[in-house]
Amino acid sequence: MSxxxxxxxxxxxxxxxxxxxxxxxRDYTIHIDTPxxxxxxxxxxxxxxxxxxxxxxxxxxxxxxxxxKLYFWxxxxxxxxxxxxxxxxxxxxxxxxxPRFMRIHAEFNVRGGVYTRIAVEHRxxxxxxxxxxxxx
Length: 136
Known about the structure:
GTP Cyclohydrolase I, domain 2, globular
């Protein structure tokens, strides 16, 4: 059994680490699913649960996933409306990696018989999405 302290954080953090895109010359999509996101209702303080889906086309940088997990964890004790949480995530992630394109879908679990689904997008100036290829 090792008693050496871990060099990786296990605490919530709003820092978003990045790494160099290994193929910046190419448009490709990174898809990240987080089925266990939690935050607090700002009115009742009760927990809200959601699945967060991120799709992005990186430019020069990519998101480091451990830092992203700790970033999501930082919302666990924060009260915020679903719309505010989703838009703040987009602003923070775009600021961190400067993607060509990013879309975040947030699907919040039912509360009082109501589901909330939010989609927000960012598109870099001048970026044109490649045409999809449909194969038979």
